[in-house]
Write a structure and sequence with these properties.
Layout lengths: L2 H5 L13 E7 L4 E9 L8 E13 L11 H7 E7 L18 H8 L4 H38 L6 H30 L7 H32 L4 H19 L9 H19 L5 E4 L3 H32 L6 H35 L5 E10 L5 E16 L6 H8 L12 E13 L10 E9 L11 E8 L3 E8 L2 E14 L5 E15 L2 E12 L14
Antiparallel strand pairs: 1-2, 2-9, 3-8, 3-12, 4-9, 5-6, 6-7, 7-8, 10-11, 12-13, 13-14
Helix pairs in contact: 3-4, 4-5, 4-6, 5-6, 5-7, 6-7, 6-8, 9-10
Length: 553
Amino acid sequence: MELQEFVDSAVEDFGESFTDIFSKNIIHDQYQFESKFDFDLKPHANETEKHYSIDLYFFIPKNMGIHGDTYTRENFYSDLNNYLRIQTPELFKWHKIVQSEWKLPLSDQYMAVHLHTEKRQRLAGAVVQEVKFFGCFVDTQLKQLQSSFLRVLERNFFTRSNWVEAMSKRIQMVLDIIQVYRVKYLNPIKQQKILLDLEVKRAFLLVDEFISYRVEIVLIQLAEALQQQNPGCINVQYILTEALTQEANYRAKSRESNFDEVKKREIYYYRLGLLKKYVLEVLYLQSKNIKKEKTYRNAIAAVGAALAATWAGLADIQRFQLLGNGNGQDAWLRLVAILLLGVIAYVFKDRIKELSKEYFNQRLKQYLPDFDILMFYKYFQENGVEKQNFIGSCKEFFRYLQKDALPPEIAYIRDIGNRSELDPSRDEVIMHYSKRLVLHIDEQRVPNIQFIRDIARFDFTEFLNKLDDPDKEMSYFDQSKGIVRMEAPKVYHINLVLRYSCNYKKNKTTSEYHVEYERVRIILNKRGILRVEPVLNRGELNDSGQPGLEAIS
């Protein structure tokens, strides 16, 4: 791979595979497993819609105590957090221009009319959005820098002078663009040379503070990684040390930078979280949950009432027939029969109504979504007008499945890795979570959006309650040592099979359909998640229904 191609290869971890769904499964923290799904919105060959599906099949050992009675649909959704956001727009072609000529167009326009209150206020919202986008942009560049830097270290490319030069140049480019932002925009604002709306001033200052923290965090991580793996690379070490020194001096002029006290460290992380939320919120989609459960419930109740009414009507007809037939000698028998028929009709009418509601509710539940969500994106146009455009819709489902109800390919992928037919049969509970997205393709609708990222974090805390102690004592016999006692880890395996599918609709009659699969193993104990192991790398199944050789881990 060429030098520049390697350094500039990643774009904020967004990418595309055969199905235009890029995925990444990681451990977010001790208790949370995180999956990131990126959905491509770029139109190809006159596409009008893209239909994406993500299916997650959890295979959980039954001895963990997780099943339909102890862990309901409500429990699952309370443990699942979803975040929908756009890719950081590529508004700043900073690597293609002279750094000194770089600018924020709307901010320049805003500052040029700062004495005209009406024009200034009309642009305020768009400027706040632009400045936040800049903060997201710098954060993305720092992530790319960190990723490229670690890849260079991993491949030991710092032994080659051209790689040292390339990484040094990339670090300096990021620092230079931050410096231009501070000189060109922050200094006039801090010196109060121009009139600003309060929200605009807050945006410039808070974004700068967020950038300062992120620069320090990333550069420290790079310096530590370099010191551990290649301490002899003096040039890059010098650049990192100088940059950290300058950043510390810059922040010390206006903020407290001494973290010796616990309270100050606590405030640091708390404020950093607030800053991150403030800056990155410009990327997140707005959603509206269409609650159809009440409509479905009323419709099912209406069906039950109709069946009960039909039964009551048939019983009334029979009663009228009894009243109209026979003679006076058996009048008392007809009266008893009518009374009994009335009681039976009433009892069965009530039961028919309730049982039919329960039956149809259970039968239809598997076809009805738990959540039906509409997705919007709110943004400001260049003229300052705020718009909210419809992006698409999302439906979510959660079900427990029996093993014989599994799709054949999912069952096959789950069984990959069996050592032999003599292995004990697995006693597992199967949970199925499914997400269906319909995204509308229109480049003019919302400009600069190429990907939508869905971040799903699942909390396994509730799964840990009934697990055994993480350390167990075991004994074995050694011929030279005799009986040996030792501690052995007690772990549990949750297998997760993922199915990705994409349907491209070009018009009303034609479409393309692609499916890929992946399997990972989540290993945990009572203390939390230990690691995530890939079992089957993502790929398609071949014509025989088996993964290709390149897909097997």
